[in-house]
Amino acid sequence: MKVAVCLRRVPDTTTKIVIGADGVSINEAGVKFVPNPYDEYALEAAIALKESAGEGETIVVALGEDAVQETLRAALAMGIDRAMHLKGAPSADGLENARLLAAQLAPLGCDAILFGKLAVDDYGQQTGAMVAELMELPCAAAVSKLEVSGGRATVEREVEGGVEQAGCALPAVFTCDKGLNNPRLPSLKGIMAAKKKPLDIVPVTAGAGQAVIVSLTLPAERAAGRIVGEGAAAVPALIQLLTSEAKVL
Amino acid sequence: MAGSSEYTGVDFYDMDGLLSEEERAVRDTVRAWVDAELMPVIGSCYIEGRFPRQLIPGMAELGLLGANLPEKYGCAGLNNVAYGLIMQELERGDSGIRSFASVQGGLVMYPIHVFGSEAQRLHWLPRLASGAEIGCFGLTEPDFGSNPAGMLTTARETSDGWVLNGTKMWITNGSQATVAIVWAKTGAIDEVASIRGFIVPTNTPGFTAKDQKGKLSLRASDTSELHLQDVHLPTDALLPDSGGIRSPLMCLTQARYGIAWGAVGAAMACFDEARRYALNRVMFDRPIGQTQLQQERLANMLTEITKGQLLVLQLGRLKDLGTMKPAQVSLAKRNNVNMACECAREARRLLGANGILIEYHSMRHLVNLESVYTYEGTHDMHSLILGQEITGLPAY
């Protein structure tokens, strides 16, 4: 069982974001970066697939500048066998990044390629499906259950009001949702072992693409609340404002 | 620094920038483990006076036990800064849990590693690292705390081994231990140089341990009294390279090193809780964090924590270089535990009446830290060790 996981490095969700001087990127100074939380489900799934198969290889792939290597080593510390760093600046156009990934993933001959269902920084939600399309592989997005046997995968997806079951032949691409598993913490021995695992650096250049980021803005500050009165006496004024101003009644 | 509900530590002086990627990864893993496994149960364990034994396999699997010992013996082979960060994060949860790890690693695995034969190392260390065996350290006696050289426990050599007799007290992990490192005099009772260490399986006939009841501190940790009555041991129970009071004191230096880091963790937990509470608690129509008295409390805490962090980091770097002196460990243990006691007290006061509830952590840390202040060399004894270091004149 050979499984690849495509990993993104994202700002910790508790980080206070500051927009950079160029207006189209964030200021990374003092920002703590972590593996994309949904990618952690993918990493756990890859390790578990190999463990249950009893043989195989797990490979983690990430596109980015040198800083992404720390995130790759975190994946190796969890138990992934080897890492590939596609060294270069990602494009704002997801299709260009998907092309780079597909080109590197194709020769690996994986049984499964896993992604997080989305990256919590830009919420693009496109790379996994695009890689599947470029590689002409089946794709199941946002899977919350993944089982493999006899060259086929069975998945469950949480859809509105229920659960969808689906299946496909391997090789295939899956994007992973919360609930798929409980990602393990890297053990201390894993952290030490990660230094000795292979981390191959492949220089890449993303195409210009057709999408560009025009500007980034922070959400508007929430306006201060207004106290309309106290106790039962305030109810009529509150109902009136909820009806006429907030228009929620 | 204001904001989210998740614990993110305290790092005012970019300490992270002084840590390696690996050291940060170790710290983050232990922090996540404490959040996920320890924090949900620590309150009830504390109230019930119960050590969370169910967490031992998870701690062992992560590699938290004897983490700075070599991989050859089933350990993680970390440097001493990473080891210190483990202690910091565990004590952020609870001093009792850090005590468990300190004893297992610093007081049981360390002496076997340093004073044991290769056969003893190969037999015991992997079992202790995996949590299959739990250890305790028997040095202190009812009448010999700060003066362990006065111990009355004896080991008499026989034709086929040793016979131990004596009583040990204030022994962390004592009642749950499967193996005890026991220190005893092999010569006359005034012959301090005859002190040797022994590996004593706790199922050996004549060995009994019973928990000390009525503790108001370290309630999530087992503290026991050990009785050894004609405990017969084979020849190879002796730690061959141990000799004199210096041997157990070397073990204490290891454990005290971890405590100096651990205390910072407890202080960070209290500061974090106090800061959040100060931002959320409204009195006189504004958060209490907007009052000068509470701001001074928080400023003092942050200042002392930052100093304590820098102190242990440099101590760890010296330990990794092999140049760390025991008196430097005394300084760090003395300063940081006292600092943590002060932070915990101020945090509890800032929390007002809520601060006495188990849902908040500062008072639990406060009462735990009173034990930490007293054990592994009392605050006062460390003053005297430093006094001797400065003047060359022993006052004890």
Q: What spatial order of strands do you see in the largest sheet of chain A?
A: 9-8-7-10-6-1-4-5-11
How many helices of chain A? The count is 6
Q: How large, in whole angstroms, is the Cα Rg of chain A?
A: 22 Å
Instruction: Give the CATH superfamily of the largest domain in chain B.
Output: Butyryl-CoA Dehydrogenase, subunit A, domain 3
| SSE class of chain B | alpha+beta
Question: Widest sheet of chain B: strand order?
Answer: 2-3-7-6
Tell me the helix content of chain A. Answer: 25-40%
Just name the CATH architecture of chain A.
3-Layer(aba) Sandwich
> In the CATH scheme, what's the topology name of chain A?
Rossmann fold
Instruction: Indicate the proportion of strand residues of chain B.
Output: 5-15%
The whole-angstrom Rg of chain B is 21 Å
Shape field of chain B: globular
Biggest interface found? A-B, 14 and 23 residues
Distance between the ends of chain A: 56 Å
The shape of chain A, in one word, is globular
Task: Give the end-to-end Cα distance of chain B, rounded to a whole number of Å.
Answer: 46 Å
What characteristics describe this protein?
heterodimer, A: 249 residues, alpha/beta, Rossmann fold, nine-stranded mixed β-sheet, two-stranded antiparallel sheet, 6 helices, 26% helix, globular, B: 396 residues, alpha+beta, Butyryl-Coa Dehydrogenase, subunit A, domain 1, Butyryl-CoA Dehydrogenase, subunit A, domain 2, Butyryl-CoA Dehydrogenase, subunit A, domain 3, 3 domains, four-stranded antiparallel β-sheet, three-stranded mixed β-sheet, 10 helices
